[in-house]
Amino acid sequence: xxxxSVRGRRRYVAFVCDPSLDRPNLVAALRAVAGDGAPKVIQxxxxxxxxxxxxxxxxxxxxAMSSADPSSRSLRTSGTLRALRSRYPRLMELRPPPRx
Length: 100
Known about the structure:
Order of helices and strands: HEHEEHEHH
Structural class: alpha+beta
Mean pLDDT: 91
Shape: globular
Strand order of the largest sheet: 2-3-1-4
Low-confidence stretches: none
Distance between the termini: 15 Å
Helix content: 40-55%
């Protein structure tokens, strides 16, 4: 496991977005807006979305999401996925299956 001093800190931002938006379409829209600096889409389904970015680029990630989906609304920023998913149980229900 890589330590934060090497990898850097991360922030996870939860959004409410258009229910018809899915992960591949959101990734394409964010890349069209932000290019290679687009935030990573952790999950996106049924009107809920989580993006990962660095603390320094959080505002840029929110602006990119607003450009990609004007109906989106930022809910909360957290340092861990667990905190976001415990605050918003719908994100826990919609999370993708774990990779193995």
